[in-house]
Give the backbone structure.
Amino acid sequence: MHDIMGILSNRALWCAVTAWFVAQAIKIPTYYLVEKKLDWGRFFGSGGMPSSHTAFVVSLAVMVGAMEGFDTAYFAITVVLAAIVMYDATGVRRETGLQAQIINEILRKVFVDGQPISDDELKELIGHTKIEVAGGFVVGVLTAASYILLG
């Protein structure tokens, strides 16, 4: 039987959590650079630069490869997981965000005379562009490399 407290010393898990945290933190200044407004809520939001989902799974894959071997089934599983997450981020989730933008624009045009339909808009920052996913990939690799090099 394994000790549940081993989770506290699971380097692969903590590396992935660190990569997610770093990517989420980077979203605040990158959003500011693009939109010219500071939004601390971007730390908790999805979408934007870089992709924290990508950073999360890529750092996990690199750590698993470094710890277990790049020729193992464990590494293969994490690479496949990372590929699915990155494909989904630029595919389905991105298209959902684009549809939300179009629907929000339709609502603005239809109700231009001020008749409110709802205070809530569809979430537009759902998916990622390919460059945002690439940014998440870089954050994931650099975070894992830092964990590996710092021992």
Remarks:
- The mean pLDDT is 85.
- The chain has one domain: 4-91+127-149.
